[in-house]
Each structure stands twice: as C-alpha cells, then as structure tokens.
UniProtKB/TrEMBL annotation:
GO molecular function: acyl-CoA dehydrogenase activity; flavin adenine dinucleotide binding
Lineage: Bacteria, Bacillati, Actinomycetota, Actinomycetes, Mycobacteriales
Protein's name according to its UniProt entry: Acyl-CoA dehydrogenase
PANTHER family in the cross-refs: ACYL-COA DEHYDROGENASE FAMILY MEMBER 11 (PTHR48083:SF13), MEDIUM-CHAIN SPECIFIC ACYL-COA DEHYDROGENASE, MITOCHONDRIAL-RELATED (PTHR48083)
Cofactor requirement: FAD
Recorded family membership: Belongs to the acyl-CoA dehydrogenase family.
Domain Acyl-CoA oxidase/dehydrogenase middle span(s) in chain numbering: 134-234
Description of how the protein assembles with itself and partners: Homodimer.
InterPro entries in alphabetical order: Acyl-CoA_dehydrogenase, Acyl-CoA_Oxase/DH_mid-dom, Acyl-CoA_Oxase/DH_mid-dom_sf, AcylCo_DH-like_C, AcylCo_DH/oxidase_C, AcylCoA_DH/ox_N, AcylCoA_DH/ox_N_sf, AcylCoA_DH/oxidase_NM_dom_sf
Length: 406
C-alpha cells in the first residue's frame, strides 16, 4: 500500500491522460509551433488547440481540477495531483483539458461566490472552455506581494461602483477568448486592514477599460499574455461584487490555495520531463571518447534530480492530502512550503538539463528554455518565495513565543 493511496478512478484517469499525452499532446507541440510561426501574432489562437480540447473532452479528460462532481469528475486534490503533474509535462496540456491557471482559480471563485447571473454568463462558458478569464490584483505602483497595499479605488455611486486604477500581470488578459476579469480593489480605505478590499466581476470590454500592453517574460510574448490594464471610471453594478463588500482579501486567500498547489504539481511534471530529456541527451552525446552520461558530475545531477523530484512530490501529495482532510487553511504551511520548494527544485533540474543539452538547450528546439522561463516566474507569481517563507517562519516561531517573553 502506498503512503497516499491511489484510488481506482484516479489510476484510470492517469492512464487515460498518459495515453492522450502520447497520442495527441506531444505530437501537437510541433504543429502548434508551426501554426504560431505562420500566424506571426504572439496572441494568435491556433486551431490545433481547439482540436486538442475537443479530443480531451471526448475522452472525458475535461475540468479534471474541479472539485464539484456536477462540473468535472469531482476528484480530490490528492487524486488530481498526479494528473496535474502529467499535464505539466507539456505547455499545451492544461489548456487542452480546461485546467489552466488562472481560469481554474476564477472558476472556483465563481462557483463559491458568484451570483446565478455570474454562473450563467461566465462560469458555464468557462467550464465549457469557450471563454477565458483573468485575475487582476497586482498593481505597478505598489508592492503587491502584500495584498493589503492594493490601491485601485472602487467608489460606490448609486447602484454602481466606479473603478479607477492600473493593474498589471493579469495573466490571460491577451488571450483571444478572454472575456472577464476578477478585479480586486479598495472599497473602504478606512476599514480594518483586511476588510478594505473587495472583488468584482468585470467584463474585459467594459467602457473605461484599456488594455495597454502585454508584458514580456524573459523576452517571451506568452500567447495568453500578462496584461497591463488601465481602469478609467469603469462602472460596475453593485450586484457584481463577489460575496459582499470587504470580502476581497478573504476571497484572495481562498482562491490562491488550490491554484498554488496546482502550479507545484505542474512544476513536478516539467522537472520529470527535463530529467527524461537530460538522460536521453547524456546517453546520446559523446565527448572525449565517452557518452556524457558516464561522467560522474552528470550522474550526480541525474541522481539528485531523481531524489529531489521524489521529495517535492511527496510534499505536494502531503499538502493535497491535508487540503482534502483538514482544509486549505489548516494546510497553509504545507502549501506555502511546496510553493517555495517545487518551482526552485524544478528550476535547478531544468537548468542542469539545459547544461547537458549545450547550446541547443537555450533554443526553442527543446522545451527547456521556455520551461525555465515559466518556472522562474513561479518564484514570483501567486506570492514570491519570501512571502511564503515569512508565513512558514511565523508558524514556526509561534511555537516558541512564550519562551521569549518568559
Ligand atoms: C508571469 C507572471 C504572472 C503573474 N500573473 C498574475 C495574475 O494573473 N494576476 C495578478 O494579480 N498578479 C500576477 N502576477 C504578479 C505577482 O503575483 C506579483 O509579481 C507578486 O505578488 C509580487 O508582487 P510585486 O511584483 O508587486 O513585488 P513587490 O511586492 O514589489 O515585492 C518585490 C520583492 O520583494 C521581496 N519581498 C516581498 N516581501 C518580502 C519580505 N517580507 N521579506 C523579504 N523580501 C520580501 C520579494 O522577493 C518580492 O519579489 C504575475 C507575475 C508574473 C511574473
């Protein structure tokens, strides 16, 4: 019996997903590159993605993340973890299976706190994969890793709120199908620090919204984009405030738990693929009379990669197990720990795989350079390392607080 028992249905989904990856997703990567190159537009929506989505849906590999059985298979976090890991192996798989960030987090928020109208207008098409969404919290003018700093003003005026401010890094904001934003701002700057913020559902084409530009990531123009958006007197009906005024901070905490661990699961998939590529390359390239794989340092990297992957996988499964059994709040230390560990370790493995590939490793002939760029952003997105470490340290120090004051 394994430490974290794999249920029969989880095992079935794993084998179906692995089959789908081999038969459709990996072969689609080259087609995707070709279609993107031919279009010459970084935000083009290539037809191969819609083909993958249709096939994933046909196979029942759709909305795998969604905990509610009405919307997806209703898997637990522990059951979903290995599936997200498998999807993490290709940059196409999550979107193909309608399991991409930030839509997954936004769908969970709309499920929990959306009105009937939000569900009809946005949640259903998001679950159907016909639209996409973005989450706009971070602002260029303030240090947004402390979410209480967020400054966007949301001022009540009759039946509406009027929004003014500037957001950036709204991932998905340039996606051709992005129709809706979940926006966090301040409704009451005079309220207690964690009650000042509210979240609102805002169509991306609302009058007064201007998408200024896409922010490149290490020079990559990501297809879904990371948008900088200006809000100029944008009117939002009061009925589009999620959960109620002053609930924004609480929603952001609820939203980020599952989203964070999904990133970690996918990072492990990227690390596994990098290790696989590293081994293949090390065995096939010969220098100074022997394959690279016969050098002790390369063997060391391979062994360390295997050890590290097993460690982060176990920590991820533990966090997922705790989320399922005692809830996201009780699991917060483990979620914070894996949010730091998984991207850092996966980055190290990808970096070494790049080294083994020589110059080719930094080109787009292999998926490693893009994986590195993406993983590096995960040390910032959904909270920088230091903020998660701060939370873990606070928990640890709390145990000894009384000793210090004695
Ligand atoms: C690719 C990408 C996608 C993103 N997607 C989204 C999105 O969809 N929606 C969204 O709203 N945001 C998104 N973000 C933004 C991300 O969440 C923020 O960049 C992050 O929260 C940090 O905020 P900041 O950039 O304002 O950095 P700051 O708050 O200015 O912090 C700067 C640095 O200070 C350090 N730091 C902070 N606090 C401490 C501390 N207590 N001790 C020591 N050091 C500290 C950290 O190293 C941090 O990186 C994305 C970012 C990236 C790179």
């Amino acid at each position: 019996m394994s430490l974290f028992e794999v249920t029969e249905r989880a095992r079935q989904y794993q084998s179906q997903l692995l089959e789908f990856m081999d038969s459709h997703v990996y072969p689609a990567e080259a087609v995707y590159d070709e279609q993107m190159r031919a279009a010459g537009d970084p935000h083009f929506h290539p037809p191969v993605l819609e083909e993958l989505k249709a096939e994933a849906r046909r196979r029942g590999l759709w909305n795998l993340f969604h905990p509610h059985p009405d919307w997806g298979p209703g898997l637990t976090n522990l059951e979903y973890a290995p599936l997200a890991e498998i999807m993490g192996r290709s940059h196409l798989a999550s979107e193909a299976c309608n399991c991409s960030a930030p839509d997954t987090g936004n769908m969970e928020v709309l499920t929990l706190f959306g009105t009937d109208e939000h569900k009809e207008r946005y949640l259903k098409p998001l679950l159907d994969g016909t639209i996409r969404s973005a989450f706009a919290m971070t602002e260029p003018q303030v240090a947004s890793s402390d979410a209480t700093n967020v400054e966007m003003s949301m001022v009540r005026d009759g039946d509406d709120y009027v929004l003014n401010g500037r957001k950036w890094f709204a991932s998905n904001g340039m996606h051709r199908n992005c129709k809706v934003l979940i926006v966090m701002g301040k409704t009451d700057p005079g309220a207690p620090v964690h009650r000042q913020q509210s979240m609102m559902v805002v169509p991306i084409d609302a009058p007064g919204i201007t998408v200024i530009r896409n922010l490149p990531v290490f020079g990559y123009q990501d297809r879904e984009g990371h948008a900088e958006i200006v809000f100029n007197d944008v009117r939002v009906p009061a009925s589009d405030v999620l959960k109620g005024e002053g609930e924004g901070f609480a929603i952001s905490q609820a939203r980020l738990g599952p989203g964070r661990i999904h990133h970690c699961m996918r990072s492990i998939g990227m690390a596994e693929r990098a290790l696989e590529l590293m081994c293949r390359r090390a065995q096939s390239r010969v220098t100074f009379g022997k394959p690279l794989s016969e050098n002790a340092n390369i063997q060391d990297w391979i062994a360390e990669a295997r050890i590290d992957i097993e460690m982060i996988r176990l920590l991820t499964l533990k966090a997922a197990h705790l989320m399922d059994t005692v809830g996201n709040k009780e699991a917060r230390t483990e979620i914070a720990a894996i949010k730091v560990a998984a991207p850092n370790i996966a980055l190290k493995i990808v970096d070494r795989a790049i080294q083994v590939h020589g110059g080719g490793g930094v080109t787009d002939d292999f998926p490693l350079a893009m994986a590195w760029a993406h993983l590096r952003t995960l040390r910032l997105a959904d909270g920088p390392d230091e903020v998660h470490k701060r939370a873990i340290a606070k928990q640890e120090l709390r145990k000894y607080r009384n000793e210090a004051s004695a």
